[in-house]
Amino acid sequence: MADYTIADPLEATRTSTKNLMLEDEETLNMSPEEKKKEKRKITKNVYIISFGFLFLFTAFQSLQNLQSSLNKDKGLGLASLSVIYGALILSCIFVPPIMIGRLGCKWTLVISMMGYVLYTVSNYYARWGTLIPASIIIGESFAYS
To answer: N or C terminus of the chain with fewer C-beta within 10 Å?
Structure first.
């Protein structure tokens, strides 16, 4: 893996955009059949990721709406939600450009989705030691999903 030194946090995103543009130039030399296949592949991938996020956020939003009722014990549910949004505020500033620059868009989305899964699973054994760390992770995942 390349070592990135990022003076400007948005530089990684700009570099990623330049790479997309270079791929666009390569498609100019493709035959019409190859372009059609590539378009079909991209469309299929968009549908898959869209349905994945649909199911993921349906589960998360339902769980989030019930959090204060399910985990009333010493305010765990409200604390969990507070930690999610506190971590989101702090991580939105720095984390997304660095993660996208180092891992790329695809792997950043995969890691983000795993954060939501971890939070959902931590609700099966809802304790301060499981829910709060999962809330921190999902708060950071919110920033780049």
So the answer is: N
Is residue 2, in this structure, part of any structural domain at all? no
Does residue 96 belong to any structural domain of this protein?
yes
In a domain, 4, yes or no: no
> What does the DSSP assignment read for 61-120?
HHHHHHHHHHT-GGGHHHHHHHHHHHHHHHHHHHHHHHHHHHHHHHHHHHHHHHHHHHHH
pLDDT in tens, the chain (145 residues): 455 555 555 565 555 555 554 455 666 777 888 888 989 999 999 999 999 999 999 999 999 999 988 888 888 999 999 999 999 998 888 888 888 889 998 898 888 899 999 999 999 998 999 999 999 999 887 666 6
- Rounded Cα distance between 43 and 39, Å, is 6
* Residue-number span of the structural domain to which 29 is assigned: 11-143
Secondary structure letter of residue 7 according to DSSP: S
Residue whose pair of structure tokens reads 């543009």 in the numeric block? 21
Domain total in the chain: 1
